């Protein structure tokens, strides 16, 4: 559990580590139980979504880039880019 917490960048107390380890174990046991269900007699659906629910892909006007960038807390306006805090490798 400590390794998972580290990968998720979580700082857990020993009590939280114990509690979450138990919860994660229960979730994984349930997922394993679901995997064991015999579904061989169930026919696969022909399609995931009915064709009637699909809409035409129609281009629509977007927001004006300069207006959006002017409202951003940090932006490279000449480059047309948003600046965000580094997440990976920080």
Q: Can you describe what's shown?
A:
By secondary structure, the protein is mainly alpha-helical. It has a domain at 1-36: Orthogonal Bundle (Histone, subunit A). Helix content is 38%, strand content 4%. It contains three helices and two strands. The chain has helices spanning 2-7, 14-35, 65-70, and strands spanning 75-76, 81-82. Strand 1 and strand 2 (81-82) form a beta hairpin. The model has no long low-confidence stretch (mean pLDDT 86).
| Percentage of residues assigned to helices | 25-40%
The top-level CATH class of one domain is: Mainly Alpha
Basic shape: flat
Low-confidence stretches: none
Count of runs of 4 or more consecutive helical residues? 3
CATH architectural designation of one domain: Orthogonal Bundle
Major sheet summary line: 2 strands, antiparallel
Could you tell me the radius of gyration in angstroms? 24 Å
Strand fraction equals: under 5%
Mean pLDDT score: 86
**Could you please say which CATH topology of one domain applies here?**
Histone, subunit A
Strands of the biggest beta sheet: in what spatial order? 1-2
Calculate the terminal CA-CA distance, rounded to whole Å. Answer: 22 Å
Oligomer: single chain
**Count of DSSP strands:** 2
Structural class category: mainly alpha
Topology as a string of helices (H) and strands (E): HHHEE
């Amino acid at each position: 559990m400590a390794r998972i917490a580290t990968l998720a960048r979580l700082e857990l107390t020993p009590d939280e580590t114990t509690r979450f380890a138990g919860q994660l174990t229960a979730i994984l046991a349930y997922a394993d139980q679901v995997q064991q269900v015999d579904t061989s007699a169930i026919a696969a659906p022909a399609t995931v979504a009915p064709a009637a629910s699909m809409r035409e892909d129609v281009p629509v006007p977007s927001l004006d880039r300069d207006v959006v960038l002017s409202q951003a807390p940090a932006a490279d306006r000449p480059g047309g880019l948003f600046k965000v805090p580094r997440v990976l490798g920080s």
